[in-house]
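Re: that chain you flagged

S.,

Sorry for the slow reply, it's been a week of failed gels. I finally had a moment to sit down with the sequence you sent. For the record, here it is as I used it:
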Amino acid sequence: MKVVAAPVNHPVPPIGLVVIGRNEGERLRDCLASLAGQGECLIYVDSGSSDGSQELAARLGAEVVELDLSQPFSMARARNTGLARLRELAPQLEFVHFFDGDCQVIPGWVEQAWRYLAPLTGVAAVCGRRRERYPERSLYNAIADLEWEGPTGPVAAVGGDALYRINAFAAAGGFDEALIAGEEPELCWRLRRAGHEIHRLGQDMTLHDAQLLRFRHWWRRMVRGGYGSLDVLRRCQARAGQAGDLPFANMVTSARRWTLGWGGATLGLALVLALPWGWVGALVGLGTGLVLWLVQALRIARPARRLLPGWRALAYGGLTLLGKWAQILGQGRYLRDQRQGRAAQLIEYKGAGAGTVANPHASASSGAQAGARPVSDWRADRARYPESALVREQSLWAIAVYRFGRWNDRRPPGVSRWLLDRLYWVLFRLVETLTGVSFTKATDIGPGLRIFHFGNIFIHSGVRMGANCTLRQGVTIGNREEGGPVPVVEDEVEFGAYAQVLGGIRIGRGARIGAMTLVLRDVPPGYTAVGIPARLIPPREQGDLSSPDPSQAPTPTLIPIPTAEGGL
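Prediction finished late last night. Pasting the structure tokens below so you have them in one place:
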């Protein structure tokens, strides 16, 4: 499409601002504060934070939108949801600027980007230069800062922080919500196919806090990149075939070349030379492969010396090639998920923001997902059971296997994690058969879980459950139809025997579900649900349910909540 300049005479930039985040803590405060007065409407989309981010954003003047966590989370879905809310509140706006919640916006950038984009009707999106806030804190942060470098002018794609023309964005269908990474290049590819241009300016745009402080953080980020790159490439190939400038084609090919290709060629050469010369020939073959690898690392490091002085440039070259193995692992995980028909799961590489905002009212249903450690969760579970419970109470077997699987999934990818994952599935099937308790490690359950009277307990893998919840025999928590939404259960919820909780509903904190109750609608915090279908009893009508006097209860159908040694 030809880029045409149109006059710009709007007194206030017609821009909506959409920020996405989860447990960003003080990083979110910096982000929202830097956006004060920069646009006509500020939206914050939260994805299950447990650090008080929602309240913080509201205090700073943002319209807060909380994602439905019964659906798979992705940054693409968060951005689309934010734009949808923006268009409801301010349908007249022509532009939207997306920001990640761990970024602080450079003063003057938003207006500068709008003044650049507004007259160029053939340009769909524009971005600037993202920089790392703390490149000195670790080699991995410094490498991330180097990765944000790029050419200016017309480019193939923008990143997470970018200003879009809303009409072009909507016409292209927005971000692909099934992607866990690479959603921006995939959208920009579709925009360019529609005739639009994507531009990048040389000015600084945002300060980003990657928080890549450990090798494992960097490794997980590379695994996610490998998974997302192949996912995006396959989707684009399905639309356009093999021809054309496909996103991530070089990245996918390079990862295969410097892992499977290089490794296979090195081993092959070693075997060939070993036939006539034995182990000496094998060493020569392996040495040749190693020399080739080192030469390539030096080639990568050479242009990086401008921004990474001394040994850091050499380390960058070596880590770049090492990262190909993480990427190929990510590609393998993608192919496995495709073969098994499994939806992509977000691969997180960093924890909550330093200095998180205290929030005593946050639900542990999101805290379990966002950062609670399985080992600590297991201690909280164990504290709700009596002594020698591992021998006496079979339900604890199921919880132990569940926590083991969650713990293993948080470990860095590698051979040991792969082997322990196979062990987990063997233990899961064994315990499921012996106890009749079925919830996989994909289910998100907070600390302090207690199960009375094992048997016929089924929890859907998409369920989010908070802290200190109690289950009893026969409980089912899941969807109403195949592929449908599932419940979100907040903290301290009690389930009576054979209770059925189905569909995309929310069970509030401290709610109680009576025995043999069928729940198909939301239960507010503190309420009791009884009957088929459930009717709701407010807290003020429940009386003293622990009293032995039956007259204290409002109706004879209200079933008391048991003591720690009993059940419904």
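What I noticed first: Residues 15-213 form a domain with the Spore Coat Polysaccharide Biosynthesis Protein SpsA; Chain A fold (CATH 3.90.550.10).

Talk soon,
D.
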